[in-house]
Structures are given as structure tokens and as C-alpha cells.
Design brief:
Structural class: alpha+beta
Helix content: 10-25%
Strand content: 25-35%
Distance between the termini: 179 Å
Strand order of the largest sheet: 18-17-20-21
Oligomer: single chain
């Protein structure tokens, strides 16, 4: 089959090289153009927001309102072209009622005209309870009142021989009274007595010692009656004291006295027996039996003697039972038995038969043994 003549194909004209290069060059700048448009839009938005948030008016300086009464602060705020707004009330120990104790913004900051300043107002000084300072020293009373936000007022000296000098006796207002903080409390302080020392009561009659102690404003403690002893001081005579003479006495310290109970009563003499005319044998049968010879276990009752003995009682920090016992041929008997802190010297008259020993017991334990 014969084919007819072919039609020649039309070729599209090729774009010129310069035109292709020009089209590619323009498209390469599209991202940069978009980024620039976005940046301009962000700048416009930020500017609008800043203009919307920024207060209108010229800048002014915030005045200091703290420590100023509210009505005076209002006048100052008006002249400074700012406003005031109370945001809180609070008690304050130093600011009276309706005085400004806080502000925001602080004084000296720059703000626009019309800015509102937040302030805190004082509700005044709070009430506090007056502490009890009785029986305290003046120094401790001042410290206690200071911790309670109170001050010392008038200090009055009052003579009182039973109280240590400087001790608080009374106060006004009374303890636990509600008063404003910073109030003054008047106190009354004891001038006290001069330092006193224990006088020597040994050898005096009890009635005389009581009178002397009362005149010297010295308190007497217990009176201990000593056991009956041959050759003892007359009844009612003081033979010992605690504390010993010359000891410095504290406030309200008392002196204990040991008082003699005297000696035993003398026996009534018996009538002299009439000697009968019996035979020598009968006389021999009626003669007394010989006494046993003395030994270390059974000392001889012979050699009875009277002596004055000074007994130093051991000193202890706390009162303890102290007992002094005389051991001689006649047996054992107690010379002193009392609860005491010791440190005193007892002077007693003792009658000793044969060899004797003076034993001192403290709290039931033998501490000294002195042969006589």
C-alpha cells in the first residue's frame, strides 16, 4: 500500500535562553518576599498591642505614701496625678489607725499620669496581754515586758526585809490585762535587806533567843530537845544551832536550835540499914557476892567522869539523819538525833563510865568514832 506524502511536523519555537533565565530569577525571591511581609505584620501587631497596653499621659514619679495618714495621702496623690486604691488592712505595732504601711509601685518609680497606686492601711496597734512579772528580778521583768511588746514604766522602791533586793513585788496594770502594744507597765521593786549573818545563840535561854531573833528580823526554825544527860546545861539552854554563828543568811532562811532538856533527877537517898547482931557465919552468908572482874567485853563501871565534848557534825549538801551515840560501860545512849545538813559544832556535857567511845552516824552509816 502506497503511503501518501508525509506532512512535516511543526516544531514549537524554543524560548529564548534569556527569557528562561529571567523567569527563574523572579521565583527565587518569593520566600524572601513572604518573610518580609510576615515581619512587617508582626511589627505592626506589636506596635498596636504596645499602644493599647501603655497608659495614656505623661510620665510622673510615684510619691512616698508610707507613714502618711490616708486623708493626707489622698491630697498628695491628687496633686501628683495618680490614684489610690486600698487593697488590705493590717494591724501594726508602730503605726496608728488609717496610716499607710505599704504601697505598690514603690516611691520613686516612674508611671503614667492616672496610674492607680495600691496601698495597705493600718488597723492600729493590736491589744496584748500583760505578763506576770511578780517575783522576777528587775532585769528579767524588763526582758519579759519587751518580748510582750510592752515597756517599763515607773519603778518604785519599797522596803521589804523578807525579799531579796531588786525583786518585783507588784505591778500595774495587773497580770493578763489586755492593753495596747507599747503601753508602759509600772512596777514596785523591793529594796531588800542588808546582808545578815547568823548570830550566836549558844548559851542563851530559849526565850531570850526568840526575843533577840525577832528584834533582828531573823526567822527561827525547828527547836530540837536534846536527851537528858548528867551534867547537861539547865533546861531551856541552847546548846547548838544550824547554821553555825557567822554564816551568811539568805532571804527567808531559818536557824534551827538544839535546846537542852537538863540533867536527870537526883535519886532519893534510902535510909541507912540497921546492922543486926548476927553470928559471923550468918554475916558471911549475907555479905554481897564479889563483882566480876572487868574485861574488854564488860568494862568496869568504875572511873565515872564528867566531861564537856565538842562534836563537829559532818556537812552535806542536803539534810540527812545525823545521830551521835555514846558507848561506855553503862551501855549505849543517844546524844544527838536530828535531820540536818551538818556543818555545825555541838557542845555537850557527858558523863562517861569507864572507857567510852563517841560514834557519829550519817544516814545510818558510821562516819567517825572518837575514844573518850
Amino acid at each position: 500500500m502506497n503511503e501518501g506524502p508525509r506532512r512535516p511536523r511543526r516544531r514549537r519555537p524554543r524560548p529564548q535562553a534569556g527569557a528562561r533565565r529571567s523567569a527563574r530569577h523572579w521565583t527565587e525571591y518569593l520566600p524572601w518576599i513572604a518573610l518580609g511581609v510576615f515581619a512587617v505584620a508582626v511589627a505592626v501587631v506589636i506596635t498596636l498591642i504596645s499602644m493599647w497596653l501603655a497608659p495614656a499621659g505623661r510620665p510622673v514619679t510615684v510619691p512616698p505614701f508610707i507613714g502618711m495618714p490616708f486623708n493626707q495621702a489622698e491630697a498628695l496623690a491628687s496633686s501628683s496625678h495618680v490614684g489610690l486604691r486600698v487593697v488590705a488592712h493590717r494591724n501594726d505595732f508602730h503605726a496608728p489607725k488609717d496610716v499607710i504601711i505599704g504601697q505598690l509601685p514603690s516611691a520613686g518609680e516612674k508611671v503614667r499620669e492616672g496610674r492607680v497606686i495600691d496601698i495597705i492601711l493600718s488597723d492600729g496597734v493590736p491589744l496584748v496581754s500583760v505578763p506576770n512579772v511578780s517575783n522576777m528580778s528587775l532585769r528579767d521583768a524588763k526582758l519579759t515586758l519587751s518580748n510582750a511588746h510592752l515597756t517599763i514604766g515607773t519603778v518604785t522602791q519599797t522596803k521589804n526585809l523578807d525579799i531579796i533586793a531588786g525583786q518585783v513585788l507588784n505591778q500595774r496594770p495587773d497580770p493578763f490585762t489586755q492593753v495596747p502594744a507599747g503601753s508602759a507597765v509600772d512596777i514596785q521593786v523591793a529594796s531588800g535587806r542588808p546582808q545578815m549573818y547568823a548570830p550566836n545563840f549558844v548559851g542563851l535561854q530559849l526565850t531570850v533567843a526568840k526575843k533577840a531573833a525577832s528584834d533582828a528580823h531573823i526567822a527561827l526554825g525547828t527547836f530540837t530537845a536534846m536527851p537528858l544527860t548528867e551534867g547537861a546545861k539547865p533546861k531551856g539552854t541552847i546548846v547548838g544551832q544550824d547554821p553555825v554563828p557567822g554564816t551568811a543568811l539568805g532571804a527567808k532562811q531559818k536557824i534551827a536550835l538544839q535546846v537542852s532538856s537538863g540533867g536527870p533527877e537526883s535519886p532519893t537517898p534510902l535510909p541507912t540499914p540497921v546492922q543486926d547482931q548476927s553470928s559471923p557465919a550468918e554475916s558471911a552468908s549475907l555479905s554481897p557476892s564479889p563483882l566480876p572482874s572487868p574485861s574488854p567485853i564488860l568494862p568496869s563501871p568504875a572511873g565515872e567522869r564528867t566531861m564537856r565534848v565538842s562534836i563537829a557534825l559532818p556537812k552535806s549538801d542536803t539534810p540527812k539523819p545525823v545521830r551521835v551515840v555514846l558507848q561506855d560501860a553503862a551501855g549505849s545512849h543517844t546524844v544527838f538525833d536530828q535531820v540536818t545538813s551538818g556543818g555545825i559544832v555541838l557542845t555537850v556535857d557527858l558523863t562517861v563510865k569507864g572507857s567510852g567511845t563517841l560514834e557519829t552516824y550519817v544516814d545510818g552509816k558510821l562516819v567517825t568514832s572518837t575514844p573518850l
